[in-house]
Amino acid sequence: WTFTGSPAGTLTVELPVLHERLQNNREGFTRVYDVEIILKVRGQDAQWVHEDLQRHGHEIRAELVHLWRSLESAHLDEPHLRTAARRIKDRMLERFGRDPVTREAIIADAIVISGTGFRAD
After folding, report:
1. What is the DSSP string of 69-98?
2. Rounded to 5 degrees, what angle do the CA atoms 4, 91, 26 make?
3. Is 18:64 a contact under the CB 8 Å cutoff?
4. Is the separation of the CB atoms in 28 and 73 below 8 Å?
């Protein structure tokens, strides 16, 4: 886990979720990407999010693989992969929700690290 602070003083923790090769064939041919996905989580929620990731790892992995395959090629060519990161963050927000008291999002951000991909044919 990596701990970081935000301007508001809130501690966040980076939790690795996925690190593998993913495919996308939205261009009519298969391209393979080396992908790493990390979630930035509020510090006070890091333990239970980590435990949920451990318990439901295959389910979450399947969701992320499907999401990656559904991305348009233009999204995969973005310099900072912001569309992919936003869609992953939104999906993880659906899963983990918001703090019931403060309504603050449990997942602060998603970080996507990927190369440009290579053709698999």
Report:
1. HHS-HHHHTSTT-HHHHHHHHHHHHHHH-B
2. 110
3. yes
4. no
Which helix (H) or strand (E) segment holds residue 54: the answer is helix 46-55
What are 53-108's pLDDT values in tens digits?
999 999 999 999 999 999 999 999 999 999 999 999 999 999 999 999 999 999 99
Separation CA 88–CA 64 (nearest Å): 7
> How distant, in Å, are the alpha carbons of 3, 47, 87, 112 from that of 53?
18, 10, 18, 17
CB-CB neighbours of 84 under 10 Å? 22
Nearest Cα neighbor of 88 from 51, 56, 113, 54 is 113
pTM listed for this prediction: 0.89
